[in-house]
Design brief:
Blueprint lengths: L4 E4 L2 E2 L5 H9 L8 E8 L4 E8 L1 H18 L15 E10 L3 H19 L3 E5 L10 H5 L6 H6 L14 H6 L2 E5 L4 E7 L4 H11 L4 E2 L1 E2 L2 E2 L9 E2 L6 E8 L4 E8 L7 H14 L4 E7 L4 H14 L8 H12 L9 H4 L1 H5 L12 H9 L7 H24 L8 H36 L6 H42 L5 H26 L5 H32 L1
Parallel strand pairs: 5-7, 6-7
Antiparallel strand pairs: 1-4, 1-5, 2-4, 2-5, 3-4, 8-14, 8-15, 9-12, 10-11, 13-14
Length: 560
């Protein structure tokens, strides 16, 4: 089971003094096990978004230290900025990433708030999934009146803080208040306009955001039967938005919070904004991502724009990200570096280098060295990945062929399948070597006592079984991938027939090579039932592959 991980995204009310920002951020990395992912300051908003991740207890400690340091260095009585705010650390949302539920994350949010209130004397509110009552779920309600209205708000019994003092004392005058939440992954996303008008930007924001706009007649709000202002809902769910002018860039923007990107994605918000802007005689020139974003959100955006262009979706992740960046104009205001803005890439920065990250020359040299790994299993997986890459190439070329426009989706589907097989086989390149290393680790376990010998024997058995399952997965995947090459031989570009043929031969080599590894590793396994089962399945795939290879060679011979 994965260890529980949560992300913390505190927003501090300082975006101009880099010395203060660095001093506040530096306390995060004083907590062991917490990884700082991003620091995104904004001069016009006078606000910095900080992102870090780790196990819950460590993240809560890091968040507390950050809030404490921000309270020491930021004086809210002297603060000004474009963004709504009411505290030195204005908001501190906790986001469940893996191995932890939203309910469990909310418990940690309340633990943090209780400690902030008691130890730091800072008042605040729980919002979204940590909220204590319905009206406090919405951050805008909790922060209404901002810092300037905080004295009155704290004195209102209806808005008694969830933690900390209900008084605007000398400490609170300096620190302001704080909103803490447990929430879904939120994307802070700004869309750029060819205008300097905040009023026009707001009009578009009201068109799009879920809350929409208040109905006005003769300059007055129209009330419903309950005496509440009537509203016209906006186009998109799970979207908050306002318009503002950013002096730093000299343009107006619509600033969105996409509170659930599975409901409204970044690319849908962008496209709807483009339409709304055009209806008002304005033009969207690009957009800006604040903080980090999950990889899948960028890949989905790439797929969305590729589909609109009637182009194959079966391309590499890096190419999809490039399409997304250019289509959304994410690099208009400043460079967009995926390695610094996509969560998974940032998390992988300090990870050990993998075999698949080596150059071909370095991989060949590593294989040829005295080390026993990488061995035949990793090489078989590599050959399989290269084979299906050729089949995928033919699918992509066929999808882009002039005159075949009506067939692009069918070829795109094959290319997408090919990419999935390629990713699996590339994973197995390193996993085969990892499985061999697990066997070596098991053999290094102590064997001085009867108990130690039993533990060591069990570890060796489990590691050897796993080292047999991995090449079996190579066999399965490489054999299945041959469907891509077969389809391309039958329906793809005639001029690329030989490419698909080479791909099929590579897949066949991967199957046979992995089959040898399954058999030799199985010899050392004690569990006879496991051996019988996996060897029977492996032999079946072996014979199916040889039969399919003959069929495909015959097909090539009839077409050349």
């Amino acid at each position: 089971m994965n260890k529980p991980l949560i992300e913390c995204v505190p927003n501090i009310s300082e975006g101009r003094d880099i010395t203060k920002i660095n001093a506040i951020v530096s306390v995060v990395e004083t907590v062991e096990g917490v990884k700082l992912l991003d620091i995104d300051p904004g001069k016009a908003t006078n606000r910095t978004v900080i992102t870090f991740v780790g196990e819950p207890a460590q993240v809560i400690e890091a968040a507390f230290r950050l809030i404490k340091k921000a309270a020491e260095l930021i004086d809210m009585s002297k603060h000004s900025g474009e963004h709504p705010r009411f505290g030195a650390t204005d908001v501190c949302p906790l986001v469940p990433i893996s191995g932890i539920s939203m309910e469990e994350t909310a418990v940690y949010a309340r633990q943090l708030g209780e400690r902030v209130g008691k130890e730091l004397g800072i008042p605040g509110y729980y919002y979204e999934n940590a909220a204590t009552e319905e009206k406090r779920r919405n951050l805008a309600n909790c922060r209404a009146g901002e810092y300037e209205g905080l004295k009155e708000k704290l004195a209102n019994p209806l808005w008694k803080p969830d933690f900390g003092p209900a008084a605007f004392n000398t400490t609170v005058q300096r620190t302001g208040a704080l909103a803490i939440s447990a929430r879904d992954f939120l994307v802070a996303y700004n869309v750029n306009l060819n205008s300097t008008s905040t009023r026009r930007a707001n009009a578009i924001a009201f068109d799009i955001r879920e809350a929409g706009r208040t109905v006005m007649e003769n300059g007055k709000k129209v009330l419903d039967e309950n005496g509440e202002p009537k509203r016209i809902s906006g186009k998109l769910k799970a979207v908050k938005g306002i318009g503002w002018y950013i002096e730093e860039y000299g343009i107006a923007q619509i600033s969105y919070n996409l509170t659930n990107i599975s409901i409204t994605s970044m690319h849908v918000a962008f496209d709807e904004t483009v339409k709304a802007a055009q209806e008002r005689g304005l033009r969207v020139t690009g957009s800006e991502l604040i903080g980090l974003i999950p990889l899948q959100a960028m890949l989905d955006a790439g797929d969305y724009f590729l589909t609109k262009q009637q182009r194959s979706l079966g391309i590499d992740d890096a190419e999809k990200i490039k399409i997304a960046v250019k289509s959304l104009g994410l690099d208009e205001l400043k460079p967009f570096n995926p390695k610094e803005r996509i969560i998974e890439y940032v998390m992988a920065k300090d990870a050990p280098q993998q075999l698949v990250d080596l150059s071909i020359t370095a991989f060949a040299n590593e294989t040829a060295s005295e080390s026993m790994a990488p061995g035949g299993g990793s090489i078989a997986a590599t050959v399989g990945a290269l084979g299906v890459s050729l089949g995928t190439m033919v699918a992509n070329l066929s999808a882009h062929k002039a005159g075949w426009d009506s067939r692009w989706e069918a070829f795109s589907d094959w290319a997408v399948k090919g990419q999935a097989y390629k990713k699996k086989l590339l994973f197995l390149v390193d996993e085969d070597t990892n499985s061999f290393n697990k066997i070596m680790e098991a053999f290094r376990l102590p064997k001085n006592t009867t108990e130690e010998k039993a533990i060591r024997a069990e570890a060796v058995e489990k590691a050897t079984q796993y080292a047999t399952e991995i090449p079996f997965q190579v066999m399965e995947t490489a054999y299945q991938s041959m469907e891509v090459m077969k389809a391309m031989m039958e329906t793809g570009l005639p001029s690329s027939l030989s490419d698909a043929g080479v791909g099929a031969l590579c897949a066949r080599t991967a199957v046979l090579g992995a089959y040898f590894n399954v058999r030799i590793n199985a010899k050392d396994i004690k569990d006879k039932e496991f051996i019988t089962s996996i060897l029977k399945k492996a032999e079946m795939i072996y014979h199916q592959t040889l039969a399919l290879e003959k069929e495909l060679i015959d097909l090539i011979d009839t077409k050349i």
